[in-house]
Amino acid sequence: MAAGIWISVWSFFKFLPFFFALLLLGIIKGALFGPWAWLIMTIGISALILGLWPMHVIWTYYCIIRTKMFGPIIKLLLLIAVTVILVLWLIIGIMGSIFAGLAYGFLAPAMATFDAVGEGKEKLLLHCFLDGTWSTITGSCTVVRDVKDMLLHSYFSIMDEVHLHAPPDGKPYEIRLLHIPGAILAAACGLVVDALMFTLIALYKFPVMLFKGWKRLIEDLVGREGPFLETACVPFAGLAILLWPFAVIGAFLASIICSAPFGAYAAVVVYQESSLSLGLSYVVSSVSIFDEYTNDVLDMAPGSCFPRFKYRKDEASSHGGSLSRPTSFKDNHDVKKAPQRVTSFKSSFDEFNPFKLLDLLFIECNHHGKDLVAEGVITPKDIEGTKADKVSTGVLNVGLPAYVILKALLRSARANSDGLVLSDGSEITSDNRPRSKLFEWFFDPLMVIKDQIKAENFTEEEEAYLEKHVLLISDPKRVKENLIRLPSLSEQKQAEIEAFARRLQGITKSMSRYPTSKRRFDVLVKALSEELASTMGGSQSANGSRVRKVRSGIVRMLSQRSQGKTTGIRGDDHEAQLTSDVNTE
């Protein structure tokens, strides 16, 4: 045991010179290339925010006024709230672009320098000097493009739903004016009480988190567990020990900030329960909830010394609501298993990288798109609609990704899988999926749909009917022309198939709103549209030189695919290089 400790300590000190050399090199590259990245991000993002802000103001007001989802009172409150948000967005957005540019311009070269000595890299010295130079400049341009996608595509897609969608029961949502004064009073009390008490609790537990964190990190260093698992990670984890106080300060500030939504939630309780006393009871109970939560996180004694009253008429919701912690870490503390060594942090990251799912989705879209063109399902009109950037309704933009996702769900249901079986044979389950809220928002509904499909036990004909329905649901006329209703379909099963199609298309639309997905999807649409146009004889091109250019590009893409590469689709995407290459065949 003593020998192992000394070996770990020696490994730590042995890598310190390399660590500081890489850190110095990263700082130098950050000083050389950081200002350019900062200028690109600051000027690009600020110009987008300022240029589009008047249009955002006008369109936001218009959509709120014209929507049928809300009644007059809610519309008035929304207009007041939106005014504040739009003004704050203008200030925070521009200031955020300045600080984000500074952070990215300095950190990107430094992180790329450290990543250059990772596993599987050749010519380490060359990569140490080159990585993080030009990639920092292109990365800053990618950030600006993502912001542009958010301000144009994502914003208008969301506002279109607000403007065009009607409430399910046909009646607009409205609020009860009688309980508004009580809700405002409860929210004011909650903000004051929670801000004071959360600050005192966080201040009391500040040293506990500081010293317990140091203790755990040092234990991991001695036992070569956690961030100290691999020798190459020892210097970085050593830096984590030095920077741990800053993490504790960040947690302290986050505790103070979170008091605002906790306190404001009292207004929701008053309105939902139609009782001011229950709202005030929640204000007192929220302190106990926060105290108990922090005890669990810091592995302190369970429970809380603060009172916790009933703040819901339904007793169960007072203790199992979204703001309270459903289970305690303390429950599993006594049966904690011995830490297990894993092969590599980097291999685990690559295996569970959510971008891999996006890459496989795009590859499958390309593969199935060619088949659908051969069948005549995808037409030149679809290509023209895609090129015209009709993102919200196109067969290629929404129908084809939903079609590919349905294929994966059917494949998973046939394999009786607990997760999602991808086209390359790998499987994403609840145990190995990325621990990201954004990913869970898409993954969990897909698992529900998969279980429902498995329970329906569709025949092959019904599965084919469902696939085409998902693909063409955005065009009701083509649904009638291309789909012949199967005699085996009952009215109930027909309604279920239509519900599956609508839900899958809704999920695909939501996925397209996130900037990273939009950028990747643009690359796919460009490659797929050119390939489809070439397959149809180049009829979409107005001049012969462009046709020859498109065909030469397709030849290169097909030659790359024959070698098992995916750079034809992902070559323009810097983030896609983080994932492993996948064979498209």
List the helices and strands and how they pair.
Blueprint: H1 2-66, H2 72-115, H3 124-130, H4 134-164, H5 180-223, H6 234-273, H7 276-297, H8 317-320, H9 345-351, H10 354-375, H11 380-387, H12 395-414, E1 420-421, E2 427-428, H13 437-456, H14 460-472, H15 476-482, H16 491-512, H17 515-535, H18 544-562, H19 567-570
Antiparallel strand pairs: 1-2
General description of the model:
The protein has 19 helices and two strands. With 585 residues, it is mainly alpha-helical. It has a two-stranded antiparallel ribbon. Strand 1 and strand 2 form a beta hairpin. It is globular, with a radius of gyration of 28 Å.
Most strands sheet: 2 strands, antiparallel
Total beta-strand segments: 2
Number of helices: 19
Radius of gyration over all CA atoms, rounded:
28 Å
The whole-number mean of residue pLDDT values reads: 75
In spatial order, strands of the major sheet run 1-2
Low-confidence stretches: 320-352, 539-585
Q: What would the principal axes of the Cα set say about the shape?
A: globular
Could you estimate the helical fraction of the residues in percent? over 70%
Distance between the termini: 51 Å
Along the chain, the helix and strand elements come as HHHHHHHHHHHHEEHHHHHHH
Protein name: Steroid nuclear receptor ligand-binding
Keywords: Membrane, Transmembrane, Transmembrane helix
InterPro entries: At3g27390-like
Organism: Panicum virgatum
